[in-house]
């Protein structure tokens, strides 16, 4: 799977293109000129890991925790999001906790796997109904970074996706057809 396919998959799954991708894939460092006003705590990262693991659980293949997606989300949000996007992303933690307390009278981390799944499914449905391209729902930001972080990690790319270290043999005599990607999928 190449980057373009991954970004399309994230857009289909969340209803919006990956927020912050324009900055993350730019040639300059995303954090240049913008002070990082928030450092994610270990508790935040642990919480994000649990949310990510609920979205991509370990089965016969590794899950999001195995790929340290919570730490990835913290770095990505700190380095690639604008202040407004980072604030929205951080608000997702309290939104998830509030929904957990409202639906189950417990903190998200104290829920069973089924209860966690129910909370996140309800938030996903709410997010798709409420968000606009100009203002993504905070849960959408979490879901996007979970998918992006997992499928671009070594574990996600090599143990879950079909991994082809060398995407075919080189033949310099193949005629180029306009619009053909640099390397395609087979």
Summary keywords:
55% helix, 186 residues, 0% strand, mainly alpha
Structural class, from helix and strand content? mainly alpha
Detail the poorly predicted runs.
24-35
Number of helices: 8
Based on CA inertia axes, which overall geometry fits? globular
Helical proportion?
55-70%
**Distance N to C terminus:** 10 Å
Could you give the topology of this structure?
Blueprint: H1 3-14, H2 21-24, H3 42-55, H4 69-80, H5 83-104, H6 113-130, H7 138-151, H8 154-160
Helix pairs in contact: 1-7, 3-4, 3-7, 4-7, 5-6, 5-7, 6-7
Mind explaining what this structure looks like?
The model is unreliable at 24-35 (pLDDT under 50). It contains 8 helices and no strands. Helix content is 55%, strand content 0%. The N and C termini lie close together (10 Å). The chain has one domain. α3 packs across α7, α4 (69-80) crosses α7 (138-151) and α5 (83-104) packs across α7 (138-151). The radius of gyration is 18 Å and the shape is globular. It has 186 residues and is mainly alpha-helical.
In short:
The protein is mostly helical.
